[in-house]
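Objective 1.3, modelling of assemblies. Example input:
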Amino acid sequence: MNILPLKINNLSYSANDNEILKNINFSCAEPKVTIIAGNNGSGKSTLLKILHGLIKTPNNVIQWGNYFISEVKEKQSMVFQTPILLNRTVYDNLHYVAIKKNITEKNYIEKIMRKLNIKNISNINAKYISGGEKQKVSIAMSIIGNPKIIFLDEPTSQLDPVYKNEIESIIRNLSNNNIKIFMTSHDVSQIKRIGEEIIFLDNGRVIYQKCVKDFFSEEHCDLIKNYINYA
Amino acid sequence: MLINILETAFNLIITLNNDLFEIIHLSLKVTLSALIISVLISIPFGAFLVFYKNKFQSLIVLIANTLMGMPPVVLGLLIYTLVSKKGIFGFLDILYTPSAMILAQTLLIVPIVVSLTYEEIYKKNKEYDLLLNSLNLDKLSKLKTLIYESRYALITVALTGFGRASAEVGAVMIVGGNINHFTRVMTTAIAFETSKGSIELAVALGLILILISFIITLLIKSLRKIS
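Predicted structure (tokens):
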């Protein structure tokens, strides 16, 4: 099942008479880390939610390869800015997702926990682990079932440098394993470190889409210049 | 005088007085039956209401909230008119039986459990909506997950219902008739024994009711801590 390229044709979205996304058109072909950047309220998180099917849009607006969102949702997962974990142990959170994804393989969860280095907290209730650990558990939940695409909504915005570094290396690993990553971020140095492609939104419109190297070397309008200098 | 009454009341409890424990047994049987029936109906219904988004949803929630404060005597009167010989359900022949008392207490608890369950599941749905939608779950799986995630809060809801039913006197008096050895429960017995001057048994039953209320409060407090 080839779900790339992603093609978006004239995507607009309004909520409560407020136009959040306006005529968005872009396509992404290769499995790499695509950063969605922009100032607060520019529509980054809304765009991620739409791409993941959490906000419904007409079928013909977004196409994943030859498929509609509803057909590829099982191949996608999402990590939220504030980790959403069930009131159970870390192991049970992962087990819950594995059951919902019909995974019966023995030791599957152990493998995932080893991969993300969270085996030491497997028996602790997810409520009582640190923010960084919560985000790692969220990522562990998101990789269950081998998704082809993972959406990450500012996954490191609330983390200290140590966890930020750890999460970034996990993201790099996922990308190296041919998982397409869409990630929102405000952190310019992080965009430099892990981003390969960037889509810049302003007030619901795409105003820039190129590789990250170009983003940092080209001349820009004041808005992007300020973003690069002060974000 | 008060000390003498308390001493006799404690004696009744300690010596496992037959009349006293027959009343306690029937009270618990009626209230627990009503609780089980209402929990089985109200928790799935209250949770279902969260997903059933149309104009009837808010209307049902509004009705449930209104009925939460319904005076038990009015409810008792309503059930009396329905199950009395000339009532629509007169053929059931349950007036002045424990069944009518269970019915009254069930109808008393249902709005409380529906309303509080709705609130709890609504809160949990807000918390977990993105995750559950991201996992592409159907409504039934979401419902089961939300009920499980609200488990401690829902036990508290059930205990609240139990507390309300066990302390109720008006409705069970009207539909049960307070018949000795048949439909006499703690609350109706307290009212009756006090009116005829047999204060010791009334105090003993009152102490048991306070003890039950204390245990419920303790359980609710500990469950809130856990949840």
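The first strand of chain A starts at residue 6 and ends at 15.
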